[in-house]
UniProtKB/TrEMBL annotation:
SUPFAM superfamilies: Nucleotidyltransferase, PAP/OAS1 substrate-binding domain, Ubiquitin-like. GO terms for cellular component: cytosol; membrane; nucleoplasm. One of its GO terms (biological process) is defense response to virus. It comes from the Eukaryota. This is 2'-5'-oligoadenylate synthase-like protein isoform X1. Belongs to the 2-5A synthase family. Keywords: Antiviral defense, Immunity, Innate immunity, RNA-binding. PROSITE patterns: 25A_SYNTH_1, 25A_SYNTH_2, 25A_SYNTH_3, UBIQUITIN_2. One of its GO terms (molecular function) is double-stranded RNA binding. Residues 435-506 form the Ubiquitin-like domain. Pfam families: OAS1_C, ubiquitin.
Length: 506
């Protein structure tokens, strides 16, 4: 039986054959496209761009990078869109790129017509297309078959310099990006195009088959049906698919294609629960990056943070509801059912990564938990109670370096506090009428203590001596600027639950 070219008419068991026969591009076609693209690359490298359109210096092309499907190795059969990022010598910072971006686009537009080789390939200019960032788009034709190819050119600042394209950039690069991005979130993503490309390019062959399958579905059954809708970019679908594979198979290179397709469709139906990010190229170790990423992840979902650019939520501002409706339709088709007409099972995937929480308590060994950041703190406390069997009131708190210690409310989640990475939290068990107070030492670190409001200040100083080793007579405690006297009660100072006291050494 011949294999149909319609995905929805293909049995789930034949999806591997479907990809090989209908989606995998031929070597001849790729060579023909890339031959035409080389003419564009040669034009960019050899055409002199000098002191025009407000640029006060010679503009040299430092590097041309193929990105998108042709760059990352997931092009579909008969793909006719090629994206090129051009690193230019006139950009010395993200701010300069923002200032001169459109001048460079106009300069490329003007110079394009001077290239006789491109004119001979049927050059037709579409113009500047708005996006993040804006790009210059034109069409040329392949030499043998005269098939039209759409070429997109994006000028960019070479922020990573000559570093290895798949290595982690120096944190200073991301610090400068964060400083510049306030008015242009995602507009400088092209500076990290080599990381974006390699993030997909270096994935296993079987995963690339799943990527092709998902992209084919998206182009044929979503974008083609809703050409005017503000739909997510293909890059967002690629990242979602990679996340599904990582979490659903533990990065197994051998998996069932139909299960991957079903899983992606189910994730798309619950787009408003997605919070996806990676720490391959930027991490939470740098305080500037950590603070920024935490704020990004606290925003409204869906969140699919670009693994190469923390300023860019590639899922923001699009009609995911339309994609979800189409995904629901896909799950009803033959490609999502086995030969016995049973629905193909999906992988068990959480809509956000679990994080490691280390529960610290004075006098007890640390307790390690795996927690979903969107679970309520109440559920976290239940896990602690099951492990330790506490009967008193659990008080959980955390402190970010340089910040104040904060109480974790039972009705909130870790995500509400911007906690998406491994973190220690402190457990204090109180028994009525005890309350919790935080004591902040000279180094800025805070500790939680249980006190009876009717007890003397000296009792807290004894706890501090036992835990931190600072003798009682050397301790000076203040609350709201007032020195606390040893034989006065906490209640006499108006100290309430979760107030912070300041500790210094006499």
């Amino acid at each position: 039986m011949a294999l149909t070219s319609e995905l929805y008419g293909t049995a789930a068991s034949r999806l591997d054959s479907f990809v090989a026969q209908w989606l995998q591009p031929s070597r001849e076609w790729k060579d023909e496209v890339l031959e035409a693209v080389r003419t564009v690359e040669q034009f960019l490298r050899e055409e002199p761009f000098q002191r025009e359109h407000g640029l006060d210096q010679e503009v040299r092309v430092l590097k041309v990078v193929k990105v998108g499907s042709f760059g990352n190795g997931t092009a579909l059969r008969s793909s006719t869109e090629v994206e090129l990022v051009v690193f230019l010598s006139c950009f010395h910072s993200f701010q300069e790129e923002a200032k001169h971006h459109h001048a460079v686009l106009r300069l490329i537009w003007k110079k394009l017509w001077h290239c006789h080789d491109l004119v001979a390939l049927g050059l037709e200019v579409i113009g500047v297309v708005q996006g993040a960032p804006d790009a210059f788009v034109f069409t040329i034709q392949t030499m043998k078959t005269a098939e039209p190819i759409t070429v997109t050119i994006v000028p960019a600042y070479r922020a990573m310099g000559h570093s290895i394209p798949n290595s982690q950039p120096h944190p200073v690069v991301y610090e400068s990006l964060i400083e510049a991005c306030n008015s242009y979130p995602g507009n400088f993503s092209a500076s990290f195009c080599e990381l974006q490309r390699n993030f997909v390019k270096h994935q296993p062959t079987k995963l690339k088959s799943l990527l092709r399958l998902v992209k084919h579905w998206y182009l044929q059954y979503v974008k083609a049906k809703c050409p005017r809708a503000m739909l997510p970019p293909l890059y967002a679908l690629e990242l979602l698919t990679i996340y599904a594979w990582e979490m659903g198979t533990q990065e197994d290179k051998n998996f069932r294609l139909e299960e991957g397709l079903t899983t992606v469709m189910e994730l798309l139906q619950e787009y408003d629960l997605l919070c996806i990010y990676w720490t391959k190229y930027y991490t939470f170790q740098n305080p500037v990056i950590e603070d920024f990423v935490r704020k990004q992840l606290k925003r409204e979902r869906p969140i699919i943070l670009d693994p190469a650019d923390p300023t860019h939520n590639v899922a923001k501002g699009y009609r995911w509801d339309i994609v979800a409706q189409r995904a629901n339709q896909c799950l009803k088709q033959d490609c999502c059912y086995d030969d016995k007409e049973n629905p193909i099972p999906s992988w068990n995937i959480k809509r956000a990564r679990d994080i490691q929480v280390t529960v610290e308590q004075w006098g007890y060994p640390d307790l390690i938990l795996r927690v979903n950041p969107y679970e309520s703190i109440k559920k976290v406390k239940e896990k602690i109670r099951q492990s330790r069997g506490y009967m008193g009131l659990q008080r959980l708190s955390f402190q970010i370096p340089g910040g104040e210690r904060q109480l974790l409310s039972s009705r909130s989640s870790l995500a509400d506090f911007g906690i998406f990475s491994n973190i220690p939290i402190y457990l204090l068990e109180t028994v009525s009428p005890e309350i919790q107070v935080f004591v902040k030492n000279p180094g800025g670190e805070s500790h939680a203590y249980a006190i009876d409001p009717n007890s003397f200040i000296l009792s807290l100083k004894q706890q501090i001596q036992d835990r931190q080793g600072l003798l009682r007579k050397q301790q000076l405690l203040k609350f709201q600027g007032q020195v606390l006297q040893d034989w006065s009660a906490f209640g006499s100072y108006g100290i309430e639950d979760s107030d912070t006291l300041i500790l210094s050494k006499k």
